[in-house]
Every structure is written in structure tokens, then in C-alpha cells.
Amino acid sequence: MADFVPKTxxxxxxxxxxxxxxxxxxxKEEGWGxxxxxxxxQGFWYVDKHCQAVLAVQDHFKAxxxxxxxxxxxxxxxxxxxALVFATVNRSNYSIDNHPLLSQNSHFxxxxxxxxxxxxxxxxxxxxxxxxxxxxxxxxxxxxxSMIDSSCRIVYLCRNPKDVFVSMWxxxxxxxxxxxxxxxxxxxxxERFCNGVTHFGPFWDHVLxxxxxxxxxxxxxxxxxxxxxxxxxxxxxxxxxxxMGYPFSYEEEKExxxxxxxxxxxxxxxxxxxxxKTGEAPMGAFKNEAFFRKGKVGDWENYLTSVMIxxxxxxxxxKFHGYGLKL
Length: 327
Ligand code: A3P
Hints:
The protein is 46% helix and 10% strand.
């Protein structure tokens, strides 16, 4: 393991080439969106450029105890949790009516490690002030060792797989539309989802890794369900703030700050902002508006057949059996 930032451009290029060569030797399956194929590494599936970045994150990212890491399966609400965490942790730095979230998408403010900072480069993240906020889709078992060894906080947001599948299908189709590719055959990608061959999947293994970690290391890993957050956002935001070490004071609650943050980060507010209607996403290939579709619980009812529902429920039941987890 090389836990250093390469000193010269040549060192960096050599290191990146080494990752490319490694990734090209991994098992491959057909891709979903912009990519031809996805490849398998440590039991999970990645677009090759993300996989190269995962290797770089594993080798070079040095966690600090003050870091806050937001982990999700794709389409589980990262856009929302990033906004909530950014607004909560930085609440003494910005007023709500002149807030960075009003002019910048939350993916700019809290980058996915493997999608932006480590994409084709090995950045020096040591220069960033604490607390650093990062997001990731990397599975728990593949996180860099320093994240496990340090006492940094990891927040995992999980969502019902039926809504995740529907959201992902729409998202990938948006991306394909921009690339003039035909929409994905829903039955074909459903099969792949069920078999675990999805970006950063298998979905269920991803969830279980963080679920087990949250039971083993509850001071360091917080497991939250999108559906629970939707049902009682005030309670869950306060719990989240407490976990991160930024609890709301009695005065802040009385002044209505919790509600103000929830309003700022609400689907209705975020999706109506100009930056989120017309801005380009930092990861390329789509616009910010692709991150805002309906933001509802249970939209799967409008898309999945009874056979699909039964299949997903059965897999969820089997995979989570004995772990005390219900989605
Ligand atoms: P739907 O496609 O079901 O509407 P991610 O942010 O991980 O990419 O997940 C995207 C999903 O989160 C989309 O779900 C999107 O609409 C929803 N979402 C985005 N912003 C949200 C917000 N502020 N509150 C609740 N859900 C939000």
C-alpha cells in the first residue's frame, strides 16, 4: 500500500497506469449507461474509471478522525443527505438565505471520492481544512483502511431496493438519452439488478456491509433508511447531527434551525433552484436535474409488475435473513 501523494507528475502517471492495467484484468459484464462494460473488484461492480479511482482511494486516501463520510448505494438519496450534512455541519458559517446550496449542487459541495477527486488523478486532500466532508459508493469491505482505523464518522443512507431500481432505470435512461442511446430494456436490466451486476452493486451486499458495521461500530457508522428520514425528518436530522458531533442546541431548535435546514434541503426547494434545473453535474454526462425526479417513497408501485415485486422482495428476504434488517 502506497499511502503517499506522488511527488512528480511522472510518479502520478505511473501510478494511474498501474491501476488501469490492473482494472483491465478484472472480470467484466455489459454496462448500463455510458460505459461498455462494468468490472468486478472485491465482489463489487464498477465502471472501469471508477474502479481505477477505488484503487487509488484505497492506496492514497488518509482519513482524519474529523472526516465525515457519506456512503450510499447509487440512487438511495445521496443528493439529499449531502445537502443535509453540508448544511448541518456548516450552519455557523452561512445564513440560510445566502447559502451555498442555493447556487451549487450538493455533489459539488460534497464530492464522491471515487468519482471526482480521484478520477484520473491522485489529489492532495491534506490541504483541505477540517472537517472534510466526502461521499462514496464504495462498499464497506473496500473502504481504505485509514477510514476504518481512524475514528472518522461514516453515515450510510439506505433505500428500498424497489425504489432504487426504478430510480436507477430512469437515471440511466436520462444519461443514455443525452448520448443518443436507446432506453434500457427494463426486463434485461432488472435481471442484472437481481443478479447484483449494477454500478457499485450487488445492492444487497453493499447494504449488509454497512449494516453489520453499524452494529459492530455504532459510534463510527450510522445506518439510516431514506424512508425513515422521509417519515420523520426532524427526528432523524437531530440524530444525524448528534452522531456527527454537531448536535443542535436547545436554542437552535427553539429558533427553528432544524426546520429551516430541512426546508432548504427539501426535494421541493432543491429541485426548483436554477442551479439544479439547468446546471451541469460535476460527474459529466448529465445535468443536475437528473438527480431530482420524484423524491417519493413507493414510486415502484407505478412501474414494477407483481412478478418483479415478488422477486425483489424474495431476494431481500433471503439476503437479509438473520441480520435483523428490513427494508
Ligand atoms: P427518485 O428517482 O425516486 O425520484 P441519488 O441522490 O443517490 O442519486 O438518488 C436520487 C434519488 O433521490 C431520486 O429518487 C431523487 O429524486 C431523490 N432525491 C433527490 N433529492 C432529494 C431530496 N432533496 N429529498 C428527497 N429525495 C431526493
